[in-house]
């Protein structure tokens, strides 16, 4: 399998919430599966649309919030796919973080 990733991923199972800029629905409970310099993979039970802007909220004091010095980051949905398995959420979602987003600092600070 060819790896098309720009940056290495780091594993995580930290809980977060997802707010949608294009909808009043939410926030939706989620968790970070992995992260890199430029993005996150999250799991959630609500499907998202490719290109949709989102805000990812971390709980104050959680590892990610401490690492980036912020309680949130912003980005865009790059893909969303159904997941199989009894112990995961219904959808896996790939997010590209905004270049100026604090979340981009996450792996540089780690």
From TrEMBL:
It comes from Desulfomicrobium macestii. This is PilZ domain-containing protein. InterPro entries: PilZ_domain. Pfam families: PilZ. Residues 3-94 form the PilZ domain.
């Amino acid at each position: 399998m060819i790896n098309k990733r720009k940056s290495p991923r780091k594993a995580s199972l930290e809980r977060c919430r997802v707010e949608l800029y294009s909808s009043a629905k939410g926030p939706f409970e989620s968790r970070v599966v992995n992260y890199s310099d430029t993005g996150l993979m999250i799991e959630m039970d609500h499907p998202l649309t490719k290109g949709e802007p989102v805000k990812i909220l971390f709980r104050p004091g959680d590892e990610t919030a401490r690492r980036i010095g912020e309680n949130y980051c912003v980005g865009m949905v790059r893909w969303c796919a159904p997941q199989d398995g009894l112990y995961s959420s219904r959808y896996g979602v790939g997010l590209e973080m905004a270049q100026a987003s604090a979340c981009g600092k996450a792996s540089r600070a780690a």
